[in-house]
Specification:
This protein is of the alpha/beta class and 450 residues long. The protein folds into three domains: 173 residues, Hypothetical protein af1432 (Orthogonal Bundle), CATH 1.10.3210; 101 residues, CBS-domain (Roll); 130 residues, no CATH class. It has 19 helices and eight strands. The strands form two sheets. It has a four-stranded mixed β-sheet. It has a four-stranded mixed β-sheet with strand order 2-3-4-5. Strand 7 and strand 8 form a beta hairpin. Helix 17 runs antiparallel to helix 18. The longest helix has 25 residues. The N and C termini lie far apart (48 Å).
Length: 450
């Protein structure tokens, strides 16, 4: 059983855990390039000005760990206890790309935070204060969007610390006066750009096929289950199972990790299956990935009964690798079509280094000699195309758009690194889970237009 941490030991452990988790995925602050730990430290420091609550300070260090790294909610609970897990869960967004556009997703997350405990709202206020200063200082355009969303959040974070509420409102007012309310490019405008890129039947058909090519049922494992009152020591069939279902009145209502079984009854170690852990057999793989970003396991229902499960180890198989490779290839095709459609309006050759451009010309020469005519654009490598797109303000960049140019650049790097990992049959779950999750998120956004 894990040691119960309290006081300064809990805060120190949370700090070390969070810094390591964010560093392992190479996460930096979007605008400054600082280690992400700088932001976490500032948030924890702001919380420390109003409270010495160790669990709240631990949550401040951990507040982004589930959204941005391979760490799950359950893992937070195992390391830091139920109270810290509850706070981090409350600070983790619940919206998914398929829930609608940015405004609709933010409304769901707003409702989630409005129900959050007071301690979690205090941490969120500290997060808003630091993010507001960072975003508005470096990106006035997105800063206006952020300030609008921050105002809505401040209206619901009423249970948080009063002093931080006042500080957050003053920070909001200061930056609103500096960046103003000038018109900005809305998500609706970007959505129209995506619709234009996906308007061609070939693009729409290709993306639709790969999104739905494999489903949760293709990678799931059967779930062994036991009655809640069954003694662990008397149960048969435990060998080799990583997770087991727990039945009440003949229906699976919870689960236990095999490595956490004691010597009592299954009910003693049972965890309930959260709504966000319960999926259907025909759930698309992008939804499975996003659920596994939050949880250790997801459970699949058939005719209303939970019968199978998926953990990250099940995502190493050939089906998932084929799906990922297909989606990356499809995105490359869409980027190429977008650049080709832009035509002479984009002068992309000066954006490449002489060496990369020479390599493309050599590939063009070889293809022409082999009787396989192509354009110079077709002879660029994926990294070349992404380097072009991520420097543009034009329509093709909508395919890899993020909240900022830096975020788009990170997605572009993710695609290149993940494709290399797939090509060399590497362990994609241990090394590339954060990249897979961001790709799945982008796929879900694009799927809204098919």
């Amino acid at each position: 059983m894990a040691e119960v941490l309290v006081g300064a030991a809990l805060v120190d452990a949370a700090r070390d855990f969070a810094c390591r988790a964010h560093a392992q995925v190479g996460q930096l602050r979007k605008y400054t390039g600082q280690p992400y730990a700088e932001h976490l430290g500032r948030v924890a420091g702001i919380v420390a000005t109003v409270s010495e609550d160790a669990e709240m300070l631990a949550a401040a260090w951990l507040h982004d760990v589930v959204e941005d790294t391979p760490v799950t909610i359950e893992e937070v609970g195992r390391h830091f206890g139920a109270s810290v897990r509850e706070l981090v869960d409350a600070l983790t967004d619940v919206s998914r790309p398929q829930d609608g556009n940015r405004a609709q997703r933010k409304a769901l997350d707003l409702e989630h935070l409005a129900r959050a405990p007071a301690r979690a709202q205090t941490v969120k206020l500290a997060d808003l204060i630091d993010n507001c200063q960072d975003v508005c200082k470096h990106d006035a355009g997105f800063g206006r969007v952020f300030l609008s969303e921050m105002a809505q959040l401040l209206d619901v974070l009423t249970a948080g610390d009063h002093a931080l509420i006042q500080r957050a409102r003053k920070t909001h007012e200061k930056w609103l006066a500096r960046v103003g309310k000038a018109p900005v490019q809305t998500e609706q405008q970007t959505d129209r750009a995506l619709e234009a890129l996906l308007a061609q039947p070939r693009s729409r058909r290709t993306l639709s096929v790969f999104v739905r090519l494999f489903s949760a049922g293709d990678v799931a494992e059967p779930l062994r289950s036991f009655d809640a009152g069954t003694s662990v020591t008397e149960a048969n069939g435990l060998s080799g199972a990583s997770v087991l279902g727990v039945r009440r009145s003949g229906v699976v209502q919870g689960y236990v990790r095999a490595d956490q079984l004691g010597e009592g009854r299954f009910a003693d170690a049972m965890q309930p299956i959260a709504p966000t852990q319960r999926l259907q057999m025909d759930t698309v793989l992008s939804d499975v990935v996003l659920a596994l970003t939050r949880h250790d396991y997801v459970f699949l229902a058939e005719q209303g009964m939970v019968v199978s499960y998926i953990g990250r180890p099940q995502m190493q198989g050939a089906e998932v690798r084929m799906w990922l490779f297909g989606m990356i290839t499809t995105l490359e095709m869409l980027v190429t079509e977008g650049l080709r459609a832009a035509g002479d309006s984009i002068e992309w050759q000066p954006l490449l280094s002489p060496a990369r451009l020479a390599k493309a010309h050599e590939m063009l020469r070889l293809r022409t000699h082999a009787g396989r005519p192509a354009s110079l654009l077709d002879c660029l490598q994926l990294s070349d195309k992404l380097n072009i797109v991520r420097t543009l303000d034009a329509t093709p960049r909508a395919l890899i758009r993020g909240q900022s140019r830096a975020e788009s650049q990170r997605l572009a790097r993710d695609l290149e690194n993940l494709r290399n990992g797939l090509a060399h049959a590497q362990d994609i779950v241990s090394h590339d889970w954060a990249q897979i999750a961001r790709l799945a998120h982008r796929i879900e956004e694009l799927a809204r237009f098919t």
